[in-house]
Amino acid sequence: MHKEEYTEKKRKPGEGLEWLLPVVLLLLALITVKDAQRNGDFIGYLNAGNLVLNGEDIYSDYLNTWPPFFSVVSVPLALMDKGSPVGVRLFWLLGSWGALFLLMRMALKLFAGKTLLLPFQKKVKDTQLSFVHPLSFIPLLLSLRFLMDNSSHLQINLYMLVLAFGSVYFFYRSKVIPAALLLGFSVAIKVFTVFLLLYFFYKRAWRMGLLSVFFVLLFSGSTVLIFGLEGAIRYHEAWFVKSVLPLPDPHHMNQSLMAAFIRLLSEQATGIDFRINFLSLAPSSIKAVYYGSLLLAAAFPLYAFRQKICPRQISLGQLMQWGILFALIPILSPVAWKPYFVFLWIPFFVLYFLVFHLRIARAQLVKVLFYASLPFLILSSELFAGVYFSDVLEVCNFITLGALLLAGALASLYFSLGGERLRQPITELWHP
Predict the structure, then answer these.
(1) Which of 49, 132, 238, 279 could pair covalently with 14 via S-S, beta carbons 3.0-4.6 A apart?
(2) Quick one: pLDDT at residue 9?
(3) Is 253 strand, coil or helix?
């Protein structure tokens, strides 16, 4: 059991953070009202839905880089927009904040055995957790930059995150069909959560993996009902040629790992008058270097994490693996705009829970890596660095490096424990 490795941090729930809650809520309310007046990336969703309604080519709009099923899902939004453009945007943004609360509630219940309360709701049971408790509130604060980016661009990423994590939550609740449905739906509309699907196969959760593939095919295949067989095939081919085959745009706002390699290895434009390339390779060579480097870097972790996943309980090691995976999902996607990094809420939570809340021993290197990630992820924003210098830092892959440091902190913790302690159920670490 090795209980000597853990000590509980003594603090009152939410101690020292209560005053921040109304400030944060007021900030989120103000930006929600402001962002409801914007188009952001939401205009691309509306255009896609309108093209379906009008029977036009869904890829005639350059903004549409998504699978055909995404355009079908966007139809209700396009219809709502005809009634009230501001109303549908407000609905979308409020739904995003609701998705964030649902994510926090599921994560705390699954990983810490606590029921998260609404803001200002009073705790009456030991199993409940105040919204301003550091365990829930600090990961929120650390993610705030990306949450605000997601709001200002009216992006879909909080919905994607709650779908992805919801699949994990239901998987451990022995509800594989809802888990697979959520994961399959998310992959069918935006693809980049496919890394979660691959992870389930890698961990030999065959039923979960196969059912998820079934739902991906079911949702993607449903486009036949809208476009006909020939039209659906043509649109899937067009999407593949347009969005999958080419190298992604290395614009500084794209903080994916592949975009980082392109900025380093080619002379392609970055969106500003600043480059960091030291080579000028052909696209095929860049792909070879990228995928070769990825395989080499992944070889040891894939071997170390090879143990079959247990759907009945979460071990300490498995909890850290979830944190690492959600830190890597944004940067492994070929395109990773800043709002994609709302996925970092999960690794922020896992790190805070294990290192600062439970105070797992031998965590000095972990803390160093964690603190080192913060300037890359937070201080590189326009608020602290200014518009131009923030763009320069993005060309230098700062957010990508920050996500890697965050994953590295969890990996360091994982390999510092090892053996029996990694197999310890996290329920044995819960402190009521």
Answers:
(1) 132
(2) 45
(3) coil
